[in-house]
Amino acid sequence: MAKRILNTGNPYKVIPKSVFESGIASYLPKAYQNFYYQMEQEPTPVHYIPKAGKYVQDEKTGVVKPVQNVPIPLKFPREFDKCLLGGEGIIKGFYKSKPQVRRFPHFWIPKLSRTAVYSEILNQHMEVLATDRVVQLIHHYKGFDEYIMQTKAIDLRTKLALSIKRQMIKAIHAGIPGWADEPEEQREILAKYKKYGDQYTPEEADWFGYNLYDATQRMEKILEAEREAKIVPLKHEFRRKLIEDLKAVGMQNVERVVRTEQGKIVDFSGE
Fold first, then answer.
1. 126 near 132, Cβ under 8 Å?
2. What is the pLDDT of residues 31-60, one digit of tens each?
3. Which helix (H) or strand (E) holds 230?
């Protein structure tokens, strides 16, 4: 990431430069920037149990040491974007079968199973690859929708989970269109989940869940469409100048037709 030197009292202090200060990312709306910074928060510990307090005393030696809750580095290959992980990831480390045996590199990979989930907000069944922890969390929150809506974006992490949450938020804003055929059920479900939709503005919901690459690609398409809409064909400009010149010499009703010297009629009212 690019860096810059700011006037902070220390002339040698270097502060990381925001990705939204240059390039196509500078055009991204504030709504997306809010989501982007959510993904930089600390995820909920899954592969280790954090210790409480600031200091701990060793039971054998009595030495007091500071508590250090260091997160375990996790790896997330692109294939995981099509799964529901529940905060799990691949752990790279070393394994020793016996104390006397030399350690060797090892990867601990989450176990994925194909399972079916049901979204009450979308009124849709989905077949997904998920870890056992996701199934446990769904039971803990008493429903797939509650699990998705109450879980932080950094803990959902994958494209699949974030896109499902985006669809749910937009469905709540639209009044739960998946239940349009059953108005009574529609009103009950909307009242049940409306509190989650109120946490996001329509623009935040529209930009929720995109990674930086996908967001910049989408913004490029939006800017390109705006540029094309602003482009006026030169024939319109030439027509306008010609009519102004003809009016200047006293000709009337030139907005409709202009008769050339050869007797041909040119229609200037349309394209």
1. no
2. 999 999 999 888 999 998 888 889 988 888
3. helix 212-230
Tokens of 221: 């398409």
pTM higher than 0.85 for the full model?
no
Task: Tell me which H or E stretch contains 106.
Answer: strand 104-108
Q: Which residue has the tokens 């990381």?
A: 16
What pLDDT, in 10s, does the model give residues 144-196? 999 999 999 999 999 999 999 999 999 999 999 999 999 999 999 999 999 99
Measured between alpha carbons, how far is 135 from 29 in angstroms, rounded to an integer? 35
- Tokens (6 digits) for 260: 């050339």
Closest CA to 44 of 91, 92, 85, 93: 85
Q: Which residues contact 5 (CB under 8 A, 6 or more apart)?
A: 11, 12, 13, 14, 15
**Sole residue written with tokens 């992980």:** 85
- Of the candidates 156, 153, 167, 165, the one whose C-alpha atom is nearest the C-alpha of residue 134 is 156
**Pairwise CA distance, residues 234 & 231, whole Å:** 9
Tracing tokens 């809409």 back to the chain, one arrives at: 229
Q: At how many degrees (to 10) do helices 30-38 and 212-230 cross?
A: 170
Residues sharing a CB contact under 8 Å with residue 210, sequence separation 6 or more, in sequence order: 32, 35, 162, 218
Q: Where are the alpha helices (DSSP H) in the chain?
A: 30-38, 132-140, 144-150, 153-156, 159-173, 183-197, 202-207, 212-230, 234-248
Distance CA 36, CA 201 (A): 15
pLDDT at 128: 96
pLDDT bracket for residue 260 (50, 70, 90): very low
- Rounded percentage of the chain residues whose pLDDT exceeds 70: 86
Q: List the domain boundaries for the chain.
A: 3-44+70-226, 234-267
Report d(CA 180, CA 191) in Å as an integer.
Answer: 15
